[in-house]
Hints:
single chain; alpha+beta; 4-stranded mixed sheet; elongated
Amino acid sequence: xxxxxxxxxxxxxxxxxxxxxxxxxLGFVTAGIAVAALREKNAxxxxxxxxxxxxxxxxxxxxxxxxxxxxCQGCLRTEKMLKEVTEEAFAAEMKSGTxxxxxxxxxxxxxxDLVERFSVTARHPVVADEADGxxxxxxEMNPVPGxxxxxxxxxxxxxxxxxxxxxxxx
Length: 170
């Protein structure tokens, strides 16, 4: 009876190293594909659709709040307060689509047109009348009041004349 010949020990070690290397490489490739898929799914840079026309068939008056990726407590508070004031002061107009609130990240490449149009960097409210589409009249809110009553007064001073202009007023 002939003895079974075992492979040399060095060849076995090399085969194990190759298998480990291939498995590790496949793991890295799989992880890379998964990360790329998640980034694509959550990627900024998807263009914002323009707000739908208001009930009157015209574009809305848009209250924009511009911000960056880094959000301090003061900025978050200002955005929240601006949104609340817009919803309270213009509830009927928001329901009809005549007034819209929109928070815009200035660091998102999808928003480059808006950022350039209004020449903003961040943390900046702008009110734009888009009755005839983008490019209509707009005004910035500067300075931004720190209390709700003053913010409402400043916002109404910007939005009400734009709404009046739509109705043929002054």
